[in-house]
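Most newcomers find our protein records easier to grasp once they have seen one. The structure tokens are whole numbers drawn from a learned vocabulary of backbone shapes. The record below serves as our worked example for the rest of this section.
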Amino acid sequence: MSARNESNPKGEIVNSQLGKIKVDSEGSPVAGSRMDTSKAYSGVPGLLKKVINENDKAAWAKIVEKVDYIYSNLDYSLGGWTVRQVLPAR
């Protein structure tokens, strides 16, 4: 288990889609990311069925593409917090 830096970024100025704003000093910092569901989750059950029943390599490649899309968006959303060591690094 790695040590976690307990520094608190509350009150810091951060870049947001609304411009530079001060982090809410009364609550926890929250991050979000907008994703296209067709690129993320849509169709996964059917693709997984093809992988299980037919060993469909193309379906598996599409699932991998969707997972990569999700992680790239989550990394974009949460990456700034790991830089500040608010979240434990991988």
